[in-house]
Design a protein that fits this description.
Layout: H1 4-16, H2 19-28, H3 36-56, H4 59-87
Helix pairs in contact: 1-4, 2-4, 3-4
Length: about 90
């Protein structure tokens, strides 16, 4: 068995954990209670994990962190747009 399959399963589970938050802020158009600091720190970690995945040649690590990063950026964009609307 290819050990990378464990990486793909882990990637699917951890990356998909961000989907409920993306869906919630997208549908409700509210980002109340979302911690910007947590998402910024997490995004930094995801970027570093992606770089690590690239250098060790692990497609599962690279893809998981790429997708997770995209989802986190989506959440942060919504948060910052909502903050800008509320201050206008």
């Amino acid at each position: 068995m290819d050990i990378e399959i464990i990486g793909y399963v882990a990637a699917l589970l951890t990356t998909s954990s961000f989907l409920p938050q993306v869906i919630k802020v997208w549908k409700s158009k509210s980002s109340e209670g979302v911690s910007v600091t947590m998402y910024m720190v997490m995004l930094t970690g995801v970027i570093l994990w992606g770089i690590y995945g690239f250098y060790i040649g692990s497609i599962s690590v690279l893809l998981a962190n790429l997708v997770a990063g995209i989802l986190q950026v989506m959440i942060l964009i919504i948060v910052f747009r909502n903050k800008r609307k509320n201050t206008s």
